Amino acid sequence: MAPRAQTVALSSDWAPPGSVKGAPGEEWLGQHEALEKLNMQAILSASTGQEQLLLELLVSHAKVPILIEELISVEIWKHKVFPVLCQLEDFKPKSTFPIYLVLHHEASIINLLETVFFHKEICESAEDTILDLIDYSHRKLTLLVARSANGEFPAHEKLLPDDLASASSMQELRKQAEVMEFEISLRALSVLRFITDQVDSLPLSALTRMLNTHNLPCLLVELLEHCPWSRREAGKLKKFENGAWHVVPPEDHVKMTKLDGQVWIALYNLLLSPECQRKYNLNGFNKSQLLKLRAFLTDVLIDQLPNLVEMQRFLSHLAVTEPGPPKKDLILEQVPVIRDRIAQENAGKWQAIAKHQVKHMFSPSEDELKGLACRWAQTYNLDVMEALAPEKPKCGLCGLEATKRCSRCQNEWYCKRACQVQHWQKHKKACNLMADALKKIQEELKVQP
Predict the structure, then answer these.
(1) How far is the C-alpha of 406 from the C-alpha of 435, rounded, in Å?
(2) Which pLDDT band holds residue 441 (cuts at 50, 70, 90)?
């Protein structure tokens, strides 16, 4: 079956981008292509409620630890090798698309993890690498808070084909990398929230790392204070949702966004779980930080997330409680190893890695670029996505098996024209969004529709 083919394709016997001898080549491109298809499979399966087969395959083939290691490998590549590429004076690529693929690889992995980490069995299958994922999410959120505190918001402008081929394309690519970093950080927030959902089944070291090593409750309070996904521009409130900034109408200013909800649920899990309360050190500083949450807990907010009533009670009790003595539990704590291992193996080699990859991957010929564009056009081909779907499409109006697809967005299905006409007013907005997205993909890949 298609899901099995894509899952098994993510083998572990490949050299990550941070390796000198393993510079991304044909094998790495195949891995990225399989990952993109797996991503589409996960989204399709989740949308139809039939993700169980995919979850079983990810768990039985032990792919989650591989994905986490690959995620951290690309993160290191982005921080250590990519800046060197941008500073090489004699490196003027005809197209930066191959480099963009490596940058996008991190976004693809975190997107997949966000989709599947909702499920307990996926979280548990990460085993010891859950510590590495917690550290990864902490790094992303810390950087997100710092940039937001400094008023740094990425300009969300997608690169066009002309940008990727211009003389200043490396500078433009750096801007795009900042945009991707922002979106990756927000997805890391969702992954972290899903991890906190499983506090009762996490290893003891994972709880210690979240609560005491990184003090995630206080970091989440800072996220709510600075709210990086919300900003004012020209007197209008804008919020970041579904990959773009949107102007919020006045009547929706107090409406909770999905990202607000993720922070509150993570705080709820970390502060109200009995095991977390036993381990968390509620000293004077932590108490003062957590009590800042009371200002956010309005009646309007609690109406949208009623469970926060318990949080309100917890904070009221905390306010009249004296800070406790420091916790002195003596434990042998596991530590994450992936990032340190990769960094140590390649210490002092980053310049050599960059030059090696410039020669072997990032200077393709015109024919190779065309082949790469066609290859990715096939990856995102709607017929391929349809083939990955677990069942036949249903009519968007009546629910019967459908054979006709909307010619504009290529996304909605109908059993007959009468259903399409009747459904148009409801489908119109989604159709416009999907059609615009398809147009952008075709422009970025330089593929004619």
Answers:
(1) 10
(2) low
Write the pLDDT tens digit of every residue in 209-266. 999 999 999 999 999 999 999 988 888 999 988 788 889 999 888 899 999 999 999 9
The strand ranges marked E within 321-433 are 404-405, 413-414
- Alpha carbon distance 31, 39 (integer Å): 12
Least Cα distance to 220 among 267, 258, 182 occurs for 267
Give the whole-angstrom CA distance, residue 415 versus residue 125: 41
Please tell me the distance from the alpha carbon of residue 126 to that of residue 51, in angstroms, as a whole number: 18
Taking the model in full, what pTM does it have?
Answer: 0.79
What is the distance between the alpha carbons of residues 123 and 130, in angstroms, rounded to a whole number? 8
Asked whether 229 and 257 are in contact (CB, 8 A), the reply is yes
**With contact defined as beta carbons under 8 Å apart, do 77 and 18 qualify?**
yes
Q: What digits encode the pLDDT tens for the residues 333-392?
A: 788 899 999 999 999 989 998 888 888 888 887 787 777 777 776 666 655 555 545 556
Residue-wise DSSP of 319-379? HTSPPPPPP----------HHHHHHHHTTT-HHHHHHHHHHHTSS--HHHHHHHHHHHHHH
